[in-house]
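Sample intake sheet
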Amino acid sequence: MSDYPTIIQGGMGAGVSNWRLAQAVSELGHLGVVSGTALDQILARRLQDGDPGGDMRRALDHFPFPEMAERIRQEYYIPGGKAERTPYKNLPLLQKDGPREREELCIAANFVEVFLAREGHNHPVGINYLEKIQIPHLPSIYGAMLAGVGYILMGAGIPVKIPGVLDSFVHHRAATYPLHVVGAQKGEEAEMSFDPAQFMEGSLPPLARPRFLAIIASNVLAAAILKRANGSVEGFIIEGPTAGGHNAPPRGKLQLDENGEAIYGERDLVDTEKIRQLGLPFWLAGGYGSPEKLREALSLGAAGIQVGTAFAFCEESGIREDYKQAVLEKVASSGARVTTDSSASPTSFPFKVVRLEGTLSENEVYQARPRICDLGYLRESYRTPEGEIGHRCSAEPLTVYASKGGKPEDTSGKRCLCNALLATIGLSQVRNGKLTEAGVITSGNDLTTIGRFLPPDGLHYNAADVIAKLLHD
């Protein structure tokens, strides 16, 4: 396993694990990972903000489809940036088939993020996707491969068809991916397709196939992925329920404690010996961000660890500075608190939330926000009475959700994470020139321990500090 990384930096949020963070980690010989969530929106908004520093346009200059790159520049780039109270453009919502404008934006945005993360060094870079955000998968993965991504990481689902997609894209061949449709009847399996030939502007040599790491939370899932995958799987990241972001729900009937948090038990523990017997490298994640836990992981036969929370609040991460400093102040004063909210996410997966004033973690902020779903990444696909495929989100207006066959009780407490996660990285949508979207910060339970990375007299540390302490303390 000598050519595998000891430390994998987690792919967090939408733009929290940005290209700057991944570049900083990979430059030091570990695996920097960019988040693949909502990169099309992120690129479009960075360009509308005037592309400070010119990084987006510099990367687009290297994009192998120059006509596509120019269309994107013309549509979204605003020299000097949009006015502060002017809203960002609404992008057409992704559907099972298109629209082409969004597919082009997905290809280019994933290329841009990986390209920038790879600049200045020769070490691999990874990208992390959530399996449950299915519709952008194919154009996004192709764009990342165009930029030479070294690893694809995917969890929050059962990604058994991703290896075959990677094999097809190596040779720019068309690929398909199944779309989960709630209420679909037998024989109505839905499938998305993507043909690179419809987007290419000339012939290209074969692409390098990235290694595929499946993010899992159970031995059963690991074995199932190996058995059912339509191509090679190169390893597993075992993510426990203390990790940030979306968590796998507890096995068995959902039970909540007195604070309304999901209760995990013995059935939710992964047997690392059984994972080791599968013969593939694996990394442990969720509460492993310390030198002691790194040594423990290695002693259990792991190739290393995945660390998220410590990197999420370092200088290079994408969390906007006021949020970052407010959280670090709470860490320094022992006032940081993370809750596992079982109702916040429209996906119904438990979701880790940092309690912070002025963010969507606070009920008064949630209640004051009108229910709007205009980004749609966490929508579920469902079968309409006419047998078509529709899309709904339990965080959208109640009457709209109910009109699509959704149960009103499923909307209780649901937050619009899509808009909030973009606000967390400083890309807040402005509505009617008045309402500005608030952010939401997710973190693992070990947020309270990241004070170990802070200097004695300050609230700033960088990615190199994290790696140094993990390896040398």
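Comment: The mean pLDDT is 92. The longest strand covers residues 125-130.
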